[in-house]
Specification:
The chain is an alpha/beta fold. The protein has a single domain (6-180), classed as Rossmann fold, CATH 3.40.50. It has 6 helices and 5 strands. The protein has helices at residues 14-26, 43-60, 71-78, 89-109, 126-139, 155-165; strands at residues 6-10, 30-35, 63-66, 113-116, 144-145. Strands 3-2-1-4-5 form a 5-stranded parallel beta sheet, with helices on both faces. The longest helix is centred in the middle third of the chain and has 21 residues, at 89-109. The radius of gyration is 15 Å and the shape is globular.
Amino acid sequence: MQNENKILIHACCGICSGYPIGLLKEMGYRPVVYFCNPNLDTKDEYDRRLNAQKTVCKYHNVELIAEEYNHQDFLDIAKGLEAEPEKGKRCDKCIELRLRQAAGKAKELGIKIFTTSLVISPHKNFAKISEIGNNIAQEDLSLEYLSLDFKKKDGFLKTNKLSKELNIYRQNYCGCEFSKR
């Protein structure tokens, strides 16, 4: 089977995905990296993060699939939630948007398991992201969401170390215009 052991990992940025990709490979998976981030506030920011992601994927020798930049998708789901605090309803909707897109891409490619690098950030709620991913997977029983807390075993330190070694772009905000506050 061509897709045996494949897993689609949604990557929010090169920094966050560096360690998770390596860990998934160690676990016996063949990661396919999916860069889909309509939440990014500008095309320039999208391109900087995509270039960093390309460097990380080359380092790990894994396939990268990048969606076209479409910020309107994010603005549509954020409408009415602009004043929400970080980690509030707007962020939940943003995560759901990107994980739905990842699940759709996994299904399109015939990959049964998907996950995300978002959970490596100490600023993100692992339980909430896992709940969103699992709910999406339950809507289509041909898919499985892998709830793996990449922060464990110093994952956040390891991913930051790798990003420094690779000298990739390091952003200082989540990505949307509302997270810059």
